[in-house]
Structures are given as C-alpha cells and as structure tokens.
Amino acid sequence: MGKTKNTSLETVVTDFILLGLSHPPNLRILLFLVFFIIYILTQLGNLLILFTVWADPKLHARPMYILLGVLSFLDMWISSVIVPRFILNFTPASKAIPFGGCVAQLYAFHFLGSTQCFLYTLMAYDRYLAICQPLRYPVLMNRKLCTILVAGTWVAGSIHGSIQAILTFRLPYCGPNQVDYFFCDIPAVLKLACPFSYL
C-alpha cells in the first residue's frame, strides 16, 4: 500500500499506486517484451528523423523539416513520460509513484501533448501557405518566423500543462491512493480527490 501522512484533521496522500492494465500473469513477460520493443522502435524512428534533418544542411532552412524535427523530438519525450512507467506494470517492481512524481508526470504529459497539438496546427498552417500561396511562401514562412512560432507552441504548451497540473493537485488528496490507470492523468487522479472520493 502507498504511504499516507497523518495531519491533525485528515490523512494526506504522499504517493499513489498505479494499478496499470489488468493482464493474465502468464502473459507478463510477453507484454513486457512487446511494449518494450514498440518503445525502442518509436525512439529509433524519431532519432532517425532528427538525424536526417540535422545531417542535411539544405533541410535546416526549410520550415517543414524544422517542424518535423520538433515533432519527432516531442514524440520521443511524450512516449518517455508514459511508456517506461507503463512497462514497469509488467515487472514485480513497485507500482507506487511519489505525489511529486505524479504531479511531474501529469504536467509533462499535458505540456508535451498540448505542445504537440499546437505544433500540428502550425504544420497545417505551413502547408496551407505552401499550397495556397506558393509564390509568397518563402516570404510568409521563413526560418526566423518558424522559430518564433515553434517557441510560441512550447510556451503555450507549458502554460496549458501548468494550469492542468495546478488545478488538479490543488485539491486535497486524503485517500484512497490507488490510481486505476497506467499513468497519472487527470480523470483517474481526480477520482481520488477528497471531495470526489465517494464516486
């Protein structure tokens, strides 16, 4: 069981137990290997895209490839926030995650996920300009503007992730502490907040 800390009025949760996905015990090794291989292939595929964009100097100046490189970088990190912890579900390792670790995981997931969504919007805008304004495209979307817009997606994603984490964890958590999910996400964690624990 996870740890709780007693205060004068209530018990405060100090860590959460990630229950993960239910699975038959005899498939534990197979599931571990399947998800581990998928994770490694995802990382290698994204590294290959990053290396290709970085290795070819002609691609550095083209906004489409800058955006594709940033998308690959984000995809590497967002899968690293969730999958390693998920894979631990198939091992005898502890399923406990400290309260601060849960906050960090929720923030990182929403920060990277919303940054990725903003980046998709930016990529759609880039393709719209390239198709609908082909002669003016080099003027409308240059490397400097692309860099500024990409920085804006990171800032907007960080603000979004911060708001989500602050609003989720400003609620009191006094038990139970078992998260019925494989990572700390808002719907699963909110069910454990004291005002909602009766649901």
Automatic annotation (TrEMBL):
Domain G-protein coupled receptors family 1 profile: 45-199
Topology of the protein relative to the lipid bilayer: Multi-pass membrane protein
PROSITE patterns the UniProt entry points to: G_PROTEIN_RECEP_F1_2
Subcellular location: Cell membrane
An MF annotation (GO) of this entry: G protein-coupled receptor activity
Keyword Transmembrane: yes
Role this protein plays: Putative odorant or sperm cell receptor.
Protein name, UniProt field: Olfactory receptor 10G2-like
Protein's gene: LOC109374258
